[in-house]
Amino acid sequence: MNPTASALVFDVMRYAIHDGPGIRTTVFFKGCPLRCAWCANPESQKPVPELSYTAGSCLLCGRCAEVCLQGAITVKDDRHEIRRDLCQACGTCAQNCPAGALTLLGRTVTPEALFDEVTADRIFWDRSGGGVTLSGGEPLAQGAFCREFLRLCRDRYISTAVETCLQAPREAIEAVDPFVDHWICDLKIADGARHKIMTGVDGTVIRNNLDWLAGKRENILVRMPLIPGVNDPPDDLDALAAFLAPMQAKVVLEIMPYHRLGESKYERLGRDYPLKGFRPPAEDHVESARNRLRNLGLQVVPAAR
Ligand code: SF4
Ligand code: SF4
User: Which ligand is nearest to the CA of 79?
Assistant: First the structure.
């Protein structure tokens, strides 16, 4: 199989109503260049298949340990243990688990196969003005696939949206741009040093790419999570507004309160949640941040989700 013609995805969500106009089908790509401490989709980060284990569903029957050729699973004394360093992500244990406690996250698709899969939803798109949204993870990390898939959509007059962290080569953005109807771009933290601590990169590439995109496109939806103590101090909001000011006619800013809904996923992947102890902000605090940015001239909308 041509590696540029396939991609690793971990979910296809139907009837999505927050990922662009109308009812949409959202495809989640696996693999992301960022490591945001607040990430609600940790299963999207690594560009390889991963095993997810839900302890609450497990019967401790030991079937998974019996079929694992790598010896990566032990079930003993009411304890279920996965040696993730030994796991080859073959998926045999998940196929044999009678309780659905194990899931292999990540499957390879071709543009044509994914297109056939999602177009079963076409009736909902046509009635609602919706379409397909590519999200992740970072779809542009698998840019050649995205270009080909989006081209197939464009050829059939299907509305397309791409949700991206913009930590991507400019060429990848340029290559897909002709086939994208709606850009949804994430913005995290104005301060570069704090951006690096909290996401792994300093945000320069992201800001430069947004600046470039706003130079040629309109109606770009920019999404920012509001995280207490991380990006909500007034000085940070003012710096964000100053950066967005030259493109304020081109972007609509959506401020979403930080939430902890993804926390249990870390446990299922055998990882620690990085923001233990962080609390979601109160709604009036979020609204006051929105108002501060509105007063600085930006178009700000409440979170759609
Ligand atoms: S995915 Fe394969 S290698 Fe990994 S624990 Fe399951 S059976 Fe073993
Ligand atoms: S096969 Fe499934 S139910 Fe049985 S021990 Fe393994 S994870 Fe638990």
Answer: 2
pLDDT digits (tens, 9 = 90+) for 25-51: 999 999 999 999 999 999 999 999 999
**Residues 260, 276 contacting (CB under 8 angstroms):** no
pLDDT on residue 2: 47
pLDDT, average across residues 270-293: 94
Cα separation, 54 vs 158, whole angstroms: 37
Which atom of ligand 2 approaches the CA of 93 most closely? 1
Alpha-carbon distances, residue 94 vs 58, 78, 166, 203 (angstroms): 11, 19, 34, 38
Identify the helix (H) or strand (E) that includes residue 302: strand 300-302
What's the gap in Å between 65 CA and the centre of ligand 1? Answer: 9
> pLDDT tier at 1 (50, 70, 90 boundaries)?
very low
Structural domains in the chain, CATH included, are 3-47+106-302 (3.20.20.70), 50-105 (3.30.70.20)
The ligand placed nearest to the CA atom of residue 67 is: 1
By most ligand atoms within 8 Å of CB, the mutation choice from 102, 103, 104, 268 for ligand 2 is 102
Is the entire prediction scored with pTM above 0.85? yes
Any ligand 2 atom below 6 A from CB of 80 = yes
Mean pLDDT of 236-253: 96
Angstrom distance (rounded) from CA 258 to CA 184: 18
Q: Give the DSSP letter string of 29-91.
A: ES--S---TT-S-GGGTSSS-EEEE-GGG-----HHHHH-TT--EEEETTEEEE-TTT-----
Pocket test for ligand 2, best of 54, 75, 87 (most atoms within 8 A of CB): 75
Q: For 91, phi and psi rounded to 5 degrees?
A: 90, 0
